[in-house]
Write a structure and sequence with these properties.
Blueprint: E1 86-90, E2 94-97, H1 98-111, E3 117-121, E4 128-131, E5 146-153, E6 158-164, H2 168-180, E7 186-190, H3 191-206, H4 214-219, H5 231-236, E8 240-241, E9 244-245
Antiparallel strand pairs: 1-6, 1-7, 2-5, 3-6, 4-5, 8-9
Helix pairs in contact: 1-2
Length: about 250
């Protein structure tokens, strides 16, 4: 036979649950995180990245050799944030041509909200001339004509800054997308992330347990290795090899 199921009886109004336990309704305490304070953020007059000229506006540009020193070693300029809270940090040296500037401008311009975000350049427009001879041209005849212009970028330099009333999680996807397309290693960072990165490098240097550092080995001229090293290796203490930054060395 089918049994008829009945709902349990409600507890009396005066309490008296199972075992004489009285239920007292109360509201739970909730802890909400405080929203970030954007009162100190100053928006520039133009929120989007400006268009970079393909050719510098000078009467005549002198052709020059391709100096590797333009991209070797650490950068001395544009290493800290000025207006934005987030940006793209170069982890190696390289050259940015006009196509890279357009890629950065269009990608960030399409992804950001100009009402709550802004972006600024931290690198100048292409200024360094690069020469190239035409295909099938015979050898000799002097230096070829100017083909295009590039901007030299060293390791540790900020390429672009993004700021405004936004969080790092909102801008990190399209900043990472831009960083992967650059001709050198780069990463999307924030103010706090950059500060933490430098603190870890300094802590690694101070707490190093290996006594045989590159600086000590070179200073003692072990195995006569100074014959094979360049003055840049002695100056940069072996942390930079050409345009590459060797972050594992202390």
């Amino acid at each position: 036979m089918w049994r008829r199921w009945r709902l349990p009886r409600p507890f009396p109004a005066g309490g008296g649950g199972p075992g004489g336990v009285t239920f007292v309704p109360r509201a739970g305490l909730k802890k909400y995180t405080m929203p970030p304070d954007y009162s100190d953020i100053v928006f520039p007059e133009r929120t989007k990245l400006k268009f970079m000229d393909k050719v510098p506006a000078v009467p005549k540009v002198k052709r020059e050799p391709r100096f590797l020193r333009d991209i070797r070693g650490p950068s001395r300029v544009a290493t800290d944030f000025t207006q934005g809270q987030y940006g793209i940090l170069a982890l190696g040296g390289g050259y940015l041509h006009w196509g890279h500037f357009e890629m950065i401008r269009l990608t960030i311009g399409r992804s950001m909200d100009p009402r709550t975000m802004f972006a600024i350049w931290r690198v100048p427009a292409p200024y360094k001339p690069v020469t190239r001879k035409s295909l099938g041209h015979r050898m000799g005849g002097g230096k070829g004509p100017i083909d295009h212009y590039v901007t030299a970028v060293k390791s540790g330099r900020l390429v672009v800054e993004v700021g405004g009333r936004c969080e790092f999680g909102e801008v990190k996807p399209f900043l990472t997308q831009v960083a992967k397309k650059l001709p050198f290693a780069a990463v999307a960072v924030s103010r706090d992330g950059l500060r933490e990165m430098r603190r870890e490098e300094e802590e690694k240097r101070l707490n190093n347990q290996n006594p045989w550092t590159f600086e000590r080995v070179v200073t003692a001229n072990m195995l006569g290795m100074r014959r094979y090293l360049s003055p840049y290796d002695l100056k940069l203490k072996g942390r930079y090899w050409g345009k590459f930054f060797l972050k594992h060395r202390v």
